[in-house]
Automatic annotation (TrEMBL), chains A, B:
GO terms for molecular function: DNA-binding transcription factor activity; transcription cis-regulatory region binding. PANTHER family: HTH-TYPE TRANSCRIPTIONAL REGULATOR GALS, LACI-RELATED TRANSCRIPTIONAL REPRESSOR. Keywords: DNA-binding, Transcription, Transcription regulation. Residues 6-60 form the HTH lacI-type domain. It holds the Pfam family LacI. PROSITE patterns: HTH_LACI_2. It comes from the Bacteria. This is LacI family transcriptional regulator. Gene3D superfamilies: 3.40.50.2300, lambda repressor-like DNA-binding domains.
Amino acid sequence: MDNNQVTIHDIAAILKIDSSTVSRALNNSPRVAKKTKDKILKKAAELGYQRNHLASNLRKSKNFTLGVIVPRISRHFFSTAIAGIEETAFKAGYTVIICQSLESFEREKSIVETLLANRVDGVLISISMETKNYDHLLGLKQRNIPYVFFDRHCNINENSNVLIDDFDAAFNATQHLIDQKSTTIAHFAGPQNLEIYKNRFKGYKSALEKNNIVFKEELVFTSSLMENDGKLNVQKMMNLSYKIDGLFCANDVIAIGAIKYLKEINIKIPEDIAIVGFSNESISSVIEPALSTINQPGLEIGVAATELLIAKITNEGEKLKNETIIIKTSLIERKSSLRNS
Amino acid sequence: MDNNQVTIHDIAAILKIDSSTVSRALNNSPRVAKKTKDKILKKAAELGYQRNHLASNLRKSKNFTLGVIVPRISRHFFSTAIAGIEETAFKAGYTVIICQSLESFEREKSIVETLLANRVDGVLISISMETKNYDHLLGLKQRNIPYVFFDRHCNINENSNVLIDDFDAAFNATQHLIDQKSTTIAHFAGPQNLEIYKNRFKGYKSALEKNNIVFKEELVFTSSLMENDGKLNVQKMMNLSYKIDGLFCANDVIAIGAIKYLKEINIKIPEDIAIVGFSNESISSVIEPALSTINQPGLEIGVAATELLIAKITNEGEKLKNETIIIKTSLIERKSSLRNS
């Protein structure tokens, strides 16, 4: 084994203990028992482990800059999450630079390269709708730059995430439509390569099952959830032989597109079709009828993700610990779904 | 004169011609007459002018990154301007990094430092409400990094700007209120250290004068134009002895705050008070009554500013040319000001 290449992971694998414990022991942390520490130090010496001073130094020459990658800054959820990020970063002395993937995988890739070139200290990322593999994030891992996913994450266990419970929120939204006497409920779903939209779909399906409503594949319309998709989906939906009386949308933007078009063709909301969206865009409380939706606390998510990221940046010994924080959501009931009011 | 320090500006000053002409001549541009070119080359040799190769080389090691500094990404105008910036930058192969000053001069300063450390190729900037001096931009100038102001600029002639005609837009907004039979018109003004708000105030004042309406200092309320300022200003306004029947606001956000509070206290819009805002936020077309406003074409402004910046980055010979591009605005008439409809 080439001495220069012995890592804490090698030591951890040989001793069958966590890399984080090895890291702590080598950093002389009081949180590691004397006995374990001795064992680790002995093995490290034996293998000729040398702390990667170059990496260490690089890590220490901080720029005090955090990179943020979001699909779109103009979405209410992302702009409030960014407000939480800025607030928390500023308090800790970091400047925030924001980049938009605009839902393009290619752009997301080149943004990661730009952030690497700019030697940011850490990255907060919510992936694009097109992102199906995560090789472009390897550069961050290799250079030891911590990153935290928020909202749109990928299904890799070893990452740090700040999320909401999309399944649970979608279940509640659908249950609410059922409580409001909807029996044939359509779902405007998002791209199923993203965990969040997969889980919203699952929550919808599960609420139907729990209420003994037969799930029908034809009532699910998948798109990239833009306003115009709302109109297109309603047109397709109206061509079906089912009498649809409830609609759960995976975001507010497509729900607003649907409402505008349903009004044009004189379908009454909520009498004919009750509608619930997702994310609580600012416009949702002002359109007529106001849109029921899931409140996704962007500010809180931004704060939690930034706190987690800064902890990973500053606490070298802890940086291998990955955790997932779940932030609570709530259903906001407005006119678009309330038949009894 | 130290030879190393002779710049094209020195040559320009001595010969009493434009720096841009000197630059073109030294770059052997066909756009400079043979006679002028000879004169410039002679003087350059005489003074011992040496092209700054270091700066030249630095300029050539491009990152293909543009930095954008805006007060707030959540404002409709800025998010549409950013959309225009992204679109234009992407076509030219640049990645865009966005930073928010959140109206703080301190933050704006540290953002400029961050962008400098990140070696961006150019900067698009719309200054904060607190910004009263521009020393923090000197670092960009010294390192030969071009920058273009959009919307919120500073009153230095030698800069490049993409602006709207704020005076003209404000004049039209106020004239419209007068046409709608308002005779006592208040103005909710923005911070007067910013050129844009100064010009909106001047446009308002000029329209009054043109219509022989006496300008009254007491009817002008200056604030940082947040939604809550709308309520506070209305409260102050209602304590005056004047019967105010028209209101021109320097942005939509404060106008919306005013509308919400006026409705609470049962003042009828537009019957009692006709209102016009500025910028056309998305929410302005949906609130009741819909807000008349100035359409500030963000997308177009973003595109023009980016084209200008990229021209300055890529066209070394032209980079000293500073110009100001004015983008046309229009008045959008909605219910909040239309008394005859």
